[in-house]
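In response to reviewer comment 3 from the previous cycle, which asked for concrete evidence that the modeling workflow produces usable outputs, we include below a single protein chain processed end to end. The sequence was submitted unchanged, and the resulting C-alpha cells are shown without manual editing.
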Amino acid sequence: MIFSNLSILIRQSTGPMDQKQEFIHIIQENEGLIYKIAKTYTDSRPDEQDLYQEIVYQLWKSFPFFRHESKISTWMYRIGLNVSIGWLNKEKRKGPLLSIPEEAYHRAEEQTNAKEEQMEILYTYIKKLNTVDKGIILLYLEGKNHEEIAAITGFSITNIGTRLGRIRQKLSSQINQ
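The workflow returned the following C-alpha cells.
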C-alpha cells in the first residue's frame, strides 16, 4: 500500500542504514497518527493517500534534523499539520474539483460499529472547521494535553484552552442541529 512505496523511496535514498531502519520503525509505530491527520484535511481517498505520502516524505527529509528534544509524536504532529496546511492551501489555488462520494471507493473496512459511525460524523463536522481549529481538535482527540498542543502549535496554553472551548461549542451545536 502507501507504506510499501515509501519503503522503496527510503531504500533508494542515501544515508546510514540504521537511520533508515529507525525511521521505518517510527513510521510503522505511528502510522495511525499520520492517517488521522491526512483524513482530517482531505475529502477523498486519493487526496488522503497523496497527503499521507507527502507527510511521510517531509518527515523523512527532516528526520536527520530531529534532535529528540520533544516526543517523536510531537515532532510528527508539528510536521504533519504544517504539511497539511500547506497542502490545503495549494489545493485551494487549484480551484474546485468534482468530489466523488466516499462510498465510491469501496473501502475495505465497513463502518458497522456504532462508535466508528459516530467518529465519522464527528470527522465530517471537524472537516468544516478552519485550518487551525482542525489541527487543535485533532490533537485533543489524540489525547494530547493543553501543554503538548501548545508546544506543537506554538500557541499559549491559555489560548489552547480558549480555542478548545469554542471548538467544542461549535461542534456540539452543529451535531445537535
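The longest helix spans residues 72-94. We consider this sufficient to address the reviewer's concern, and the full set will be provided in the supplementary archive.
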